[in-house]
Automatic annotation (TrEMBL):
Keywords: Cell cycle, Cell division, Chromosome, Cytoplasm, DNA condensation, Mitosis. Residues 43-55 have a biased composition (Basic and acidic residues). GO terms for cellular component: condensin complex; cytoplasm. One of its GO terms (biological process) is cell division. InterPro entries: Condensin_barren_su2 (IPR022816). Residues 28-42 have a biased composition (Acidic residues). It holds the Pfam family Cnd2. Belongs to the CND2 (condensin subunit 2) family. Its main location: nucleus. This is Condensin complex subunit 2. Residues 26-55 are annotated as: Disordered. It comes from the Eukaryota. Signal peptide: none annotated.
Length: 108
């Protein structure tokens, strides 16, 4: 269970980072496409220099190491306690693990 929790945690954190990178990449592409659509005058090389400056890798790197560390994992709080308890009872197996035996549905 601990190993599965860690794998799920790493998976969710990786997708959060991937989502942030893809959003930042889309914004940069939109900026370059807007600037690239300008009518070409004698200053065609000038906007390209500005675009190259905007795509600097230093703008995407986090400067503080503390901002990269996660103090609390969101996965542990995302699970409903009642759901966790009920699924733990299902894991026992046999007739005790049936859903209707655990829900407490009584007469009406």
């Amino acid at each position: 269970k601990i190993y599965a929790l860690r794998v799920d945690s790493v998976h969710s954190e990786a997708y959060k980072v991937l989502g942030g990178i893809s959003r930042a990449g889309l914004e940069d592409q939109q900026e370059t496409s807007v600037e690239g659509d300008n009518d070409g005058d004698e200053h065609d090389n000038h906007p390209r220099k500005e675009i190259e400056k905007k795509l600097s890798p230093l703008s995407t790197l986090e400067s503080s190491f503390e901002a990269l560390n996660v103090k609390k994992f969101d996965v542990a709080f995302a699970v409903d306690p009642l759901y966790h308890q009920t699924t733990a009872q299902f894991d026992e197996g046999g007739a005790k693990g049936l859903l209707l035996n655990n829900l407490g549905v009584y007469g009406g």
